[in-house]
Amino acid sequence: MRNLAIHAGFVVAVMAAGLAVGLGFPPGDWYAGLAKPGFTPPNGWFGPIWTVLYVLIGLAGARVWLHGGARGLWVAQMGLNLAWPPVFFGLHLPIPGLLIILALLAVILAFIRAEWRRDRVLALMFLPYAVWVGIATALNAGIVMLN
C-alpha cells in the first residue's frame, strides 16, 4: 500500500507541476504568429501526449525513489522540463529555450543510459519521453532558424 501511495504521489506531483507550468505559460498569440517547420504536430496533440509522458515520468520518479538509481538525473530532467515553457513561451526566447531543451534531451538520454543495465523497465519508461523531446528539440531549432 505504501508503494502505491508513493507512485500516486509522484504521478500527481509531476502532473500538477506540468499543468501549472502549462497553464502559467501557454503558447498564446506569440507562438501562433511564428513560422514553424512543416513537421510541427497539430496543437491538439500536445496535451494528450504530455499527459501520458507526465504519468510515465511520475512512475519513473517513484521507482527511482523506492529502488534507487539515477535520482539526480531524474531531478535534473524535471527542473529542465519545467524551466523550458517560461523561457520559450513566457519570455519569448527561442534560443535560450533551445539550449534548455538540448540539455533536457541530454539528461533524458543520460538517464536512460544510466538505468539501462540496472533497471531496464525504468529506462524504457523514458524512451517515449526521449522521442517526444527529440521532436520538440527539432521544432524549437526550426523555430529559431525560421524566425
Question: What characteristics describe this protein?
Answer:
single chain, 147 residues, mainly alpha, Ferritin
Q: Could you please describe the fold and organization of this structure?
A:
The protein is mainly α and 147 residues long. The protein has one domain: TspO/MBR protein (Ferritin), CATH 1.20.1260. The chain has seven helices and no strands. It has helices at 2-24, 28-32, 43-67, 71-90, 94-116, 120-125, 127-146. The longest helix is centred in the middle third of the chain and has 25 residues, at 43-67. The chain is globular.
CATH architecture designation: Up-down Bundle
Oligomer: single chain
Task: Please report the total strand number as a whole number.
Answer: 0
Say what the CATH topology is.
Ferritin
CATH superfamily: TspO/MBR protein
Helix content: over 70%
Shape: globular
Gap from first CA to last CA: 52 Å
Runs in which pLDDT lies below 50 for 5 or more consecutive residues are none
Largest sheet: none
What is the level 1 CATH name? Mainly Alpha
Number of helices: 7
Average pLDDT level = 97
SSE order in H/E notation?
HHHHHHH
- CA-based gyration radius: 16 Å
Strand composition percent? under 5%
Coarse structural class: mainly alpha
| Number of structurally distinct domains | 1
Q: Which helices and strands, and how do they pair?
A:
Blueprint: H1 2-24, H2 28-32, H3 43-67, H4 71-90, H5 94-116, H6 120-125, H7 127-146
